[in-house]
Amino acid sequence: xxxxxxxxxxxxxxxxxxxxxxxxxxxxxxxxxxxxxxxxxxxxxxxxxxxxxxxxxxxxxxxxxxxxxxxxxxxxxxxxxxxxxxxxxxxxxxxxxxxxxxxxxxxxxxxxxxxxxxxxxxxxxxxxxxxxxxxxxxxxxxxxxxxxxxxxxxxxxxxxxxxxxxxxxxxxxxxxxxxxxxxxxxxxxxxxxxxxxxxxxxxxxxxxxxxxxxxxxxxxxxxxxxxxxxxxxxxxxxxxxxxxxxxxxxxxxxxxxxxxxxxxxxxxxxxxxxxxxxxxxxxxxxxxxxxxxxxxxxxxxxxxxxxxxxxxxx
Length: 314
Hints:
Elements: H1 3-34, H2 43-51, H3 57-76, H4 82-110, H5 115-133, E1 137-139, E2 146-148, H6 152-170, E3 184-187, H7 192-203, E4 209-212, H8 217-223, E5 230-235, E6 238-243, H9 245-256, H10 258-293
Parallel strand pairs: 3-4
Antiparallel strand pairs: 1-2, 3-5, 5-6
Helix pairs in contact: 1-3, 1-5, 3-4, 4-5, 4-6, 7-9
């Protein structure tokens, strides 16, 4: 085997290994998410998960790396499905362009980075570069005729990636990250529903971090919420966003067991009231009996003497 033939094989092997790594990482993350856990624990990961509205990014990434793994394995075995290899190039080009937006979003809008997302992006970039290095002869995607490798798709993908990365800077919205170690309430002054939630929390000794709507307006717009109050809380590596007074109160009741406490208090007060009534009844009965005990008895029994009686005891 000549050095020229060895080099493409090494590239194909490396491509296959990177695809396997990406597939395993994403599969592990999907599994951990089903167990209310995650590979990524930093604030950037948490913020990115907030904006994954339909929770589909991991599944799309899994399908991407599954396809790359299968095709790169076939390529490693010298199984010639040229149109699959060409389709791989187009898919990677699209993925690179999308990653430009995702990285720009983290850089310019969130001002936080998701380490897990960056690792996946890095694997996609490496696969893209390795695909570029593979042999120059190919058959076009929609034709069986052989032609020189069209490198313009790589240039377009790279420029598209840079364009979207900097485009997010041009349209960025100032975003203030929220500290979500405890429940966060986004409120507005002179909002009666917001005041009711705050009073409810205070009455039950629940600590809420308060953010004025003007401080979190970017977040609200990005999440596409139109009403306040809004409560945000991170629980079991998932983010809860609850809108509206009644929904927030119901969640707080369930979270902090308020209904159960109130039920116990009502039962306690009821039993306490019953006990007080019983005690009062017993006390009144004792008074009646003691009154009868010390009542003057004019009909003294015969064979008995009255204490301190001056006359002769008969």
